[in-house]
Every structure is written in C-alpha cells, then in structure tokens.
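Step 1: inspect the first sequence and its tokens.
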Amino acid sequence: MSNEVSMEKVIEILKQNVVGLDKINIEAETPLISSGLVESIDFIEILCVIEREFDVKLQLDMLDFANLENAKLISIMISDAISQKEKVG
C-alpha cells in the first residue's frame, strides 16, 4: 500500500480551511507562509483537519514551518506520519 498523499488532496484541504485560498490558484510549490497566504493560526485548524482526515498524530518534530511552506512539503509530512503510524502498529 502506498503511503503517498496526493498534493491535490492537500490543496483541497487548504482551500476548504483557509479563508480566501479558494479564490487562488494553489500549486504544489506555491509558498504559503512566506507569501502571507496562510497565517500561523490557520495551520492550527489545518493540522487538526489533517490528523482527522488521515487518522494520524503529527509528531512535534514534524511541526516545523519549513514542512508547512507548500502543498508538496505538507504532502510529504503527512506521508511520513502515515509511514510512522504503520511501523508502530
């Protein structure tokens, strides 16, 4: 089974949970934080949605803004969390 999470799914989550992103063309490497499109407070909601949607717990060391800068990096972070969950059991 592939643990790879699609960037399209991540973009969908972002657009559904951050006001104004539904009107913007977000691509895999569109900067989210450095561009000001997403505020740090928005990521609290996004992280909660990700944990529910993918049934994972994001480890504290994963919650670095560098991992949240774009959909591609968020997708990798989620995939890593799924892999870690499967290793644990």
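Step 2: inspect the second sequence and its tokens, then contrast the two.
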Amino acid sequence: MRVLATTRTARKAPAFAHELGLAKDTDVFLAQANVVVICVALAAETRRMFYADLLAKMKLNPILINIARGAVVDLDALLAALESGHIASARLA
C-alpha cells in the first residue's frame, strides 16, 4: 500500500507517508487514490472542501471515509457521485 498525504504547511513527510504534498496537490493525489480519508478541522477554508468538482477528480470507484466534521463534504455532491457510480462507497463519521 502506498500512502499519500497533504498538509497546509511544508514539512518532512511522516514515516507512514510515501509522499507528502501541500493542499494544492490534493486533486493530483485524489486521482491516484483507491481510498481517501478526510481528517481536517472544520474551518471557513475547509467547509465544503470536498465539493462536486473535487469529487469528480477522484479516481473511479474509490472509497471515501470522512472522519472530519460533516460540513467538510458537500453532501449533495457526494450523493450525486455515489448515485452515478463514480464513488464506490462513503463512510461518514
């Protein structure tokens, strides 16, 4: 398994991550991921962070796991992506 991660500030990748990118790299990493785990604090800049356009950039049939606050994901966009079959399944905390 290859682990990709993003962060808001540049730093050395933690031992578990094969590659660490900045937030601007999120769409590139999403296109490669079979499983996406969202773990961010809810703030103005993260509210609806995962919106329709970003979900559409995800690899076909990924699993999306949101352990962050619900408002980080645009639920209408997520439902549309699930119904269309673009996203295989989603787990929300």
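Step 3: confirm your contrast with the notes below.
Helices lie at 26-30, 52-56, 75-84. The CA atoms of residues 8 and 85 lie 30 Å apart.
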